[in-house]
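Data availability (excerpt). The following record was deposited with the supplementary files.
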Amino acid sequence: MSTTIDYTKLAATLDYAAVEKKLEQLTQRDPPRKRKTVADVLKPLRQRLLDLHSKGWSAGQLADELKTAGVMVSPARLRECLNYWAAGGDGAARSRSPRRSKRTEANRQPTIAAGHSERGNESQTGQRVTTR
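Predicted structure:
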């Protein structure tokens, strides 16, 4: 069970000078690097990969060749990088966005349930009702 923190006590006992000194030291250092992605590894080869792709090499073929060279990359991920780079992006490819639904305009129209309106002037028992 977690206990609540009393920030009033914390503020009274906190050594703000030490915290300020620590923060000053952090401004002198570079932040820790995040883990490299395959796009980071392929970035120096970006132009050559784009040239090969524009000459007709598929992403699958290029991925197979990269695998033989020791770069483990899936064709789908390489395709994302190539498409992003071809569109003018200079960094890693973005993550995929969710697919849009394939609903057409006809599918968006509400359906009208077939009810008693098609039966004309019949009652629920099936007998004809006459009106005068």
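Summary of structural features: The mean pLDDT is 80.
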